[in-house]
Design brief:
Structural class: mainly beta
Helix content: under 10%
Number of strands: 63
Number of helices: 5
Radius of gyration: 37 Å
Strand content: over 45%
Shape: elongated
Largest sheet: 10 strands, mixed
Length: 869
């Protein structure tokens, strides 16, 4: 689990244990249920609770401030009671243990970088575990840990930005996305759209999922930001990027966060997220408690997408027969954003088992058993679940493949179990093609992540530790030439030089092996280790490597297309220029083909080949119609030598959007005095092919004020401007307001917003005067005289005359002013003269009340007079 929970929350796992007990018997019954897949229908359908467009990240996100906080984040085990009940039971003999030792892995490390953690400039480790993972873009690598991230240059390894606090990504967004920075982060790279997909759940207050989609390939640019609801404590979320949707799975611990409910699987409407459409849907299913810790498939073969209409594959739930297992459960998520009620989730309750070689859950599935050199504590393996990612590739008519790993008992230590599942094209009936347990010696290997390149080379990264080996980071791999089920000898990324102490046994939680889509050959792996023996002082590493045989048979020509991206509306057309550049000595003809064209659109190359001597360019024309689905498409142009080999390809991006409009308001800011009014002009500008009517609304009007739009809609043929009038009252609070004007097409989409600022100032206070007197008291003998100086001042530009009077004068005495009134310029003085009678004026202390009057304004001041004999 990866939420920021205070130290006292170590006992939280015991609460989960009590809650989980009630589900154990039910789980056992579900494990034995009929083989017919259980199909969940009637999904939850939600829309963003919040949406906006951020400023560029480079402008709004400062470097993360150092923090002295230290927080241990306890593991939340869905099957805690079941795991504990079987603690101490023997593990089965591993059914896929690799018996042979192969030569050194045929992939050398290229870049080997210090990541965010201890030693990284400007960063202080605040919590454990690290949740370290990364994604690889066109030119950048983004690494995210608890609770900050950094952006690196992919070519040089230089730090471009960071460390940046995770919730700084939602600065100015408001709500829990901005205020909560609790971890469980996942950065992803949409290989088809060339966009960053950055996600983080919230756990303090309302449960939600925060998603940020970059507007460009630059991770430091602007983002479309969304907040979607979650129906319970959404622990351990994992993501898969597919052409039809972004898929998410999390372990739902209910509204209280203390009772496991089941897997909450969601699909997000990718096409709308990519264009910043605030009507993007979230479609979710809630399973029962048999299912847990599932992973959605994550696309690596950008050039060969899944078959159209194929449901998304989830795998998980390996901990239902602890401490051993021989089954991984499959689930299928079919999402229909057009008709959400058609969406289904198949396999809940263990209805779709895949048989695998027998295994024992590492550390029995819960608890810590991984040793370190003294004085290091035992480390947790998270052996009850599959490890992120479920890497997916499609090899076209040959087969589809899914790869995943988890930690298992390997004799007296722990090793990495890995699988390659395959299914024919247009099938989701998965079976094991190859599997193995990599445990070449007595060291413990755990916390792995696996992926495959375009040449079907496999890379597996993980942590390594023992009583004599400090926690380190290593990797292994295999090529097509190796025997099935085997991995080559491991290589080191970094050797640890310290051990973890007093950190509640927590380690990693997950790591990430990502593939660079730019060459489909370079792997990037990130994990944590220790440079010093300490608590809360993990460091991280990110390294790149590639197998020597991947991509070496480069064709004798290059293929390029420009521009790299085009945007058009339904019913419009656009074009790209495709260029073949021959290498020295090549004079063949290159035949050109195109794939990835949107439905209800045509993609035409003219000419369809390019050859010597001039190699003329070809024009790719894309013609859409009104029914072409909106979304972002990767269109791949492939050039093949006329002999059939070799080939090269390049991909361009096409963004198809609905005919749209823009919304603006001017001026951008107005200032008004309480009780007054002001106005803005709201303009709807139709884009190409747009002919709809736009309804206008306004949000954020101050209290005790009215905000009126006239007219409340704008449409063809002239799209008249609307006037937003703001009328304030004398009691409207004086402060700065942001007014959000929303324009919504009458069909419900598209929707756009624009904001203006309104400053309400306090009304000028009315003119007034002040009055004072000196001295404040006098003492005289009977028959004597006394004087006071009365001063009248102007307040807020007062310019009237003030008459003066006095009450409380002793009997047989006189109290007079000289002068009896005063006039501007102020301040002005008047003398109050007191005259007493030696025989008749009574002795005592008197309060004289001096009154100044001007029209309806009156002010008084008291002075004291004491008369003695």
């Amino acid at each position: 689990m990866t939420k920021l929970i205070p130290l006292r929350a170590r006992s939280f796992a015991w609460i989960v244990a009590l809650a989980t007990c009630a589900y154990w018997a039910m789980d056992t019954a579900w494990a034995q249920q009929a083989t017919h897949p259980s199909v969940l229908k009637n999904p939850e359908v939600n829309y963003p609770m919040q949406f906006d467009i951020s400023p560029p990240l480079r402008e709004m996100a400062p470097v993360a401030p150092p923090t002295a906080a230290e927080r241990e984040l306890p593991v939340m085990y869905p099957k805690l009671e079941k795991l504990r009940a079987q603690r101490g039971q023997p593990a089965v003999k591993d059914g896929a243990l690799q018996p042979s030792v192969l030569p050194m892995v045929n992939a050398a490390v290229n870049l080997n970088l210090l990541g965010v953690g201890n030693g990284f400039p400007g960063y202080s480790v605040p919590d454990a575990p690290s949740d370290v993972n990364l994604a690889v873009g066109d030119t950048q690598v983004l690494q995210w840990v608890n609770v900050s991230y950094a952006v690196f240059d992919k070519a040089t390894g230089n730090v471009i930005a960071g460390p940046i606090l995770g919730n700084q990504l939602w600065s100015g967004f408001g709500g829990y996305c901005q205020s909560d920075n609790s971890g469980d982060i996942i950065p992803q790279w949409d290989k088809l759209a060339h966009r960053w997909v950055l996600t983080q759940n919230t756990f303090q207050g309302a449960y939600s999922t925060c998603i940020a989609i970059s507007q460009t390939a630059d991770a430091t640019g602007s983002y479309y930001r969304f907040a979607f609801p979650q129906n319970g404590f959404p622990d351990y979320p994992k993501w898969g990027i597919m052409p039809d949707a972004y898929y998410q799975s999390q372990n739902n611990f209910g509204s209280s966060g203390s009772a496991y409910v089941g897997v909450h699987a969601c699909a997000y409407e990718r096409a709308k997220l990519l264009v910043g459409d605030s009507t993007a849907q979230q479609i979710c299913f809630q399973t029962g408690t048999f299912d847990d810790s599932t992973l959605p498939g994550d696309l690596d073969s950008a050039g060969t997408q899944p078959p159209s209409g194929q449901p998304e594959v989830f795998l998980g739930s390996i901990d239902n027969t602890p401490p051993n297992g021989s089954v991984i459960y499959e689930y299928l998520f079919h999402v229909d954003f057009t008709t959400p009620s058609n969406s289904t989730f198949t396999g809940a309750g263990g209805a779709m088992p895949i048989s695998v070689a027998s295994f024992g859950l590492a550390c029995g599935g819960n608890g810590a058993c991984v040793p370190q050199p003294s004085p290091g504590e035992l480390l947790d393996s998270l052996g009850d679940r599959l490890m992120y990612r479920l890497a997916y590739r499609n090899f076209g008519t040959d087969h589809q493949t899914w790869l995943v790993s988890h930690s298992v008992t390997a004799g007296s230590s722990v090793g990495e179990r890995w699988y390659e599942f395959r299914a024919p094209e247009n099938s989701t009936s998965l079976s094991v093609y190859q599997q193995g347990t990599f445990a070449p010696d007595s060291n413990y290997r755990w916390m792995g992540s696996i992926a495959m390149d375009s040449a079907q080379d496999i890379a597996l990264g993980y942590s390594v530790s023992s009583s004599s080996v400090s926690p380190s980071i290593s990797y292994t791999g295999r090529t097509m030439a190796d025997a099935l089920g085997t991995m080559e000898s491991e290589a080191s990324i970094v050797s640890g030089t310290g051990s973890q102490i007093s950190t509640n046994n927590r380690w990693g939680d997950y790591t990430s092996m990502a593939l660079d889509a730019a060459d489909d050959c370079t792997f990037w792996y990130t994990n944590q280790y220790y440079m010093v023996t300490a608590s809360f002082d993990w460091s991280t590493r990110l390294a790149s490597f590639r197998f020597n045989g991947c991509g070496v048979q480069a064709p004798p020509f290059s293929l390029s297309a420009s521009p790299s991206s085009q945007t058009l509306t339904q019913g419009s057309s656009t074009s790209y220029t495709v260029t073949v550049t021959p290498q020295t000595g090549y004079n063949g003809t290159v035949n050109l083909t195109v794939s990835g064209c949107p439905n209800n659109a045509t993609c035409t190359l003219s000419p369809t080949s390019s050859g010597s001597p001039s190699y003329p360019p070809s024009t790719l024309t894309v013609q859409t119609n009104s029914s072409t689905p909106t979304g972002t498409y990767g269109i791949t142009i492939t050039g093949t030598d006329s002999s059939g080999q070799p080939s090269n390809s390049t991909t361009v991006q096409l963004v198809v959007s609905r005919p749209d409009f823009s919304l603006s308001a001017s001026p951008s800011s107005q200032t008004v005095v309480q009780g007054s009014s002001t106005s803005y002009t709201v303009t709807v500008a139709p884009g190409t092919n747009y002919s709809g009517t736009v309804n206008l609304t306004v949000f954020g009007c101050p209290n005790w004020a009215t905000c009126t739009l006239s007219p409340t809609s704008s449409g063809p043929p002239n799209y008249l401007a609307s006037t937003l009038t703001v009328q304030t009252a004398s009691i409207t609070p004086a402060t700065l307001y942001t007014l959000t004007i929303t324009g919504t097409d009458t069909t419900g989409s598209p929707v756009h917003q624009t904001t203006v600022l309104l400053t309400v100032k306090s009304a000028a206070p009315p003119p007034d005067f002040s009055i004072s007197a000196a001295p404040s008291s006098r003492t005289i003998s009977r028959g004597s005289r006394a004087t006071y100086t009365v001063t009248v001042g102007s307040v807020n530009g007062f310019s009237g005359s003030v008459g003066l009077s006095v009450s409380g004068c002793p009997s047989a005495s006189s109290c007079t002013f000289s002068p009896t009134s005063v006039s501007p310029p102020y301040p002005q003085n008047s003398t109050l003269n007191i005259s007493t009678n030696r025989k008749s004026t009574p002795t005592g202390t008197y309060t004289l009340t001096i009154t100044g009057s001007s029209g309806g304004l009156t002010h008084t001041i008291n002075v004291s007079l004491t008369i003695t004999r």
